[in-house]
Amino acid sequence: MTYRDLEKRIQGTVQRFSNVAASGDSDEVLAIQEWNSVDLAVAILASFRSGRALLLLSPRLSKEQVQPVVDSQDASLISSASLVGRDSSGKALGELSSLNQSESLMLTSGSTGAPKVAGHSASNHVSSAMAANSILKLRSSDRCLWSLPAFHIGGMAILWRAFIAGSSLQIVERGDELAQVFEKAPPTIMSLVPTQLRELVDQKVLSPPSVRTVIVGGAPILPKLLSRALALGYPIRTTFGMTETSSMISLSDVWNEVSIPSPVHAGMVLPRVEIRTSADGRLGVRGDMVFRGYRDPASASIAKQDDWWLTQDRVSFTPEGCLLPESRVDAMIISGGENIDPAEIEHVMNALPGVESTRVVGIPDTRYGSRPVAFVEMSSHMLPSEEWFKTSLASLLAGPSIPNRFYSMPRAKGDLKYSKRELAELAIKLQSSSNE
Hints:
Helix 1 crosses helix 2 and helix 5 (122-136) packs across helix 6. The chain starts with a helix and ends with a helix. The chain is 29% helix and 26% strand. Helix 8 (194-202) links the parallel strand 8 (189-192) and strand 9 (213-216). The chain has helices spanning 3-17, 38-50, 63-72, 80-83, 122-136, 153-165, 178-184, 194-202, 223-231, 342-350, 386-393, 420-435; strands at residues 29-33, 54-57, 75-78, 104-107, 117-120, 143-146, 168-171, 189-192, 213-216, 236-242, 247-251, 268-269, 274-277, 282-286, 293-296, 301-302, 309-317, 323-328, 333-335, 338-340, 355-365, 369-378, 405-408. A seven-stranded mixed β-sheet has the order 3-1-2-4-5-15-16, sandwiched between helices. The chain has three domains: 1-102, Rossmann fold (3-Layer(aba) Sandwich), CATH 3.40.50.980; 114-287 and 305-321, 3-Layer(aba) Sandwich (Rossmann fold), CATH 3.40.50.12780; 332-435, ANL, C-terminal domain (GMP Synthetase, Chain A, domain 3), CATH 3.30.300.30.
């Protein structure tokens, strides 16, 4: 599909936006629960063109999970297929009705607590895309793999980066293996989370010769996974960002196998992004890419943010100035008066023989208030005994930081990764079952 054809569909969809809401209220939020598709891309761009707010929701959320969110935002749940126009001709692709008045909405994926609804203006998305593209040198000849869902900020960012550069957007159909996509139409730019990269590495899929950049973010990447991916030819760049900053705020050079530090840093801060750290090491971010705010269900409006967005992430910097994510303030486990950092436990456990990845969460404990438990993915897919873990960690961690229980990492549910809140709920169930 050419950009001219896409423009016709966008313009036709703009005409329909004013007719889909039963109330006829031009400010009403429209909610879409869909995977990536041409129709969804059209709906996203047309919503900004028409000044309407569009809430993007995961198709994996059940009706019981979706309805409270839709109700709280006074939204109408629609499908892009019923909305997208097929005929019309109109303005240039870059013309939006307002860069700041309309917004896209998505649920945050915080490590703890209930998700919030974050709002982004078109200028937030554009600023983020231009900052990233200035480093990636994206061009019209590039083929950008749209392999992350648009209801997460990483997937939304791919859409804007491709459109800002005039690149091709390559949609991954649901159910398609990335290895199959590589054979049919190899991309030049990919954005992946570590889980997706690990699947390619485990299958020993070589990087297509056409690929010049693979951006890996959304979670820390382990040195051993990075090394294995580089050996298969993947030109990996690591990144750090969040929903509130409209995706990445830092990006590394392409890694090489000569020297991979542990932990792996997330590269240099992008142009257009200002950062600072608070006294306790929390990261503050300022720039046009910082989101508009969380949408307040009570007033159905976006809460204004200060110039500086103070994140929940503690960071440090390498001597070269590369950003090094450390831990989340809101993920700290308070156990018997001790502050236990899950990130420290994960870092130590990830270095144990055979461990592919670890997620540590805190769950209620009658004696200490809260205790850490660990979900572990092993290269052999066989979980060692609890005694093996505790013996291995005895000389590496303080006693209170050694997890009480060790569980196998649950199989990926299709939505990139489990939140720590979901893992904590699972741990409580597993512990309850073992005590019966």
